[in-house]
Amino acid sequence: MSRKVAWISDVRTEDKPWGSEKIWSAIGHIHSKILTIKKGHRTSLKKYKMKSESFYLLSGKVAVAYGDEKTTDLNFMQHGILEKDQILSVPSGCPYRLEALEDSVIIETSDYRESACEILEDDYKRNI
Computed over its alpha carbons, how large is the radius of gyration of the chain? Predict the structure, then answer.
């Protein structure tokens, strides 16, 4: 029988053209990030095959576009505004994009470590 033990680990920071990500993994299959998105910038329009994600807006205001697993055209997606203390939940296979209307900080949690995503559109010409 194995013994459970708590631990301390480091957080990795990655700079992005739209801001930055602080990344860490937790217990089991729980993975987390703190996204900082600069006003006027947005993430790529993307989707993951296996990973489901939730985005909690800690501060700022974010325009969101999101669709079902069969939609890839922004014109047919839902659009809304994420206000402080609201959550956007995105199941695997569903496309989404986050756009900061103000400097914004978001806590992201996911259930699966998957770095390869399908990028449908990107302002910074990454991996299309």
Answer: 15
| pTM beyond 0.85, yes or no | yes
What's the pLDDT tens digit per position in 5-21? Answer: 888 889 999 999 999 99
Which CATH number is associated with domain 12-121?
2.60.120.10
Phi, psi at 75, each rounded to 5°: -65, -20
Can you give the residue ranges of every domain in the chain?
12-121
Q: Is 44 exposed, middle or buried (0-12, 13-18, 19+ CB in 10 A)?
A: buried
